[in-house]
């Protein structure tokens, strides 16, 4: 498999999951602005959506969208228990979490990275993130150490990745001690350290 990524972007989530699975893979760095791979290939020709993550499967097919990719990877290594079994209520709970992270957290960060977005608008999105993180804080405090309890899942890889952006765009996590402890706990995992190092984000 081949993961197309941009350092620290949402593609870090499937990168962490790949490290967790132990499956063989390679990574291809993409310049998202130029739409070129590190080798100079036209990324539009690889992924018509133009963004990361995308994963080239062993049969040559392409799979896009982070929540779909991480579930595919989890199902390729079921013994790692990165996702509950398909058809179980717990699997739908996982999908519920992935959707929440994708639509309520991930998309709320997007305007904060846009230098042309007005400061007043950014303030609204930061307030929205604080409201959304309050639910995550309560869940972690009640269920921890991970989103689904004792077992690390693909939802944790995604939440860690998105929340890791907070410092870059000045989202205040001080009111969320359980979340901050969670971020440190996930960051210490060997899979996370390996992915961060491979992307040039850690020594």
Count structural domains.
2
Helix-strand string: EHEEHEEHHHHHH
Quaternary assembly? single chain
The N- to C-terminal Cα distance equals 25 Å
Strand content: 5-15%
For the record, the CATH class of the largest domain is Mainly Alpha
Overview of the molecule:
- This protein has 203 residues and is α+β, with helices and mostly antiparallel strands.
- The chain has 2 domains: 87 residues, Glutaredoxin (3-Layer(aba) Sandwich); 101 residues, Up-down Bundle (Glutathione S-transferase Yfyf (Class Pi), Chain A, domain 2).
- It is 50% helix and 9% strand.
- The protein has 8 helices and 5 strands.
- The chain has a 5-stranded mixed beta sheet.
- β1, α1 and β2 form a beta-alpha-beta unit.
- α1 packs antiparallel against α6 and α4 packs parallel to α6.
- It is globular and about 45 Å long.
- The mean pLDDT is 97.
- This is Glutathione transferase GstA.
Salient structural properties:
Glutathione_S-Trfase_N; globular; EC 2.5.1.18; transferase; Glutaredoxin; Glutathione S-transferase Yfyf (Class Pi), Chain A, domain 2; 2 domains; 203 residues; alpha+beta; 5-stranded mixed beta sheet; GST_C
Would you kindly provide a brief summary of this structure?
With 203 residues, this protein is of the alpha+beta class. The chain has 8 helices and 5 strands; from the N terminus they run βαββαββαααααα. Strands 3-2-1-4-5 form a 5-stranded mixed β-sheet.
């Amino acid at each position: 498999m081949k993961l197309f990524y941009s350092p620290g972007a949402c593609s870090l989530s499937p990168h962490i999951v790949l490290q967790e699975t132990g499956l063989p893979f390679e990574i291809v760095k993409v310049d998202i602005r130029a739409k070129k791979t590190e080798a100079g290939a036209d990324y539009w020709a690889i992924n018509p959506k133009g963004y990361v993550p995308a994963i080239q499967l062993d049969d040559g097919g392409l799979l896009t969208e982070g929540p779909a990719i991480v579930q595919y990877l989890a199902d390729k290594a079921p013994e790692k228990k990165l996702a509950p079994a398909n058809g179980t209520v717990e699997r739908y709970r996982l999908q519920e979490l992935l959707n929440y992270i994708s639509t309520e957290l991930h998309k709320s960060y997007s305007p904060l990275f846009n230098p042309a977005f007005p400061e007043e608008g950014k303030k609204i999105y930061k307030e929205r993130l604080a409201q959304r993180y309050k639910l995550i804080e309560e869940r972690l405090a009640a269920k921890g150490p991970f989103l689904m309890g004792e077992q690390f899942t693909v939802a944790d890889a995604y939440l860690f990745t998105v929340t890791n952006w907070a410092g870059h765009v000045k989202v205040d996590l001080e009111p969320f001690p359980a979340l901050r402890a969670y971020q440190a706990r996930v960051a210490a995992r060997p899979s996370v350290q390996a992915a961060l190092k491979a992307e040039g984000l850690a020594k």
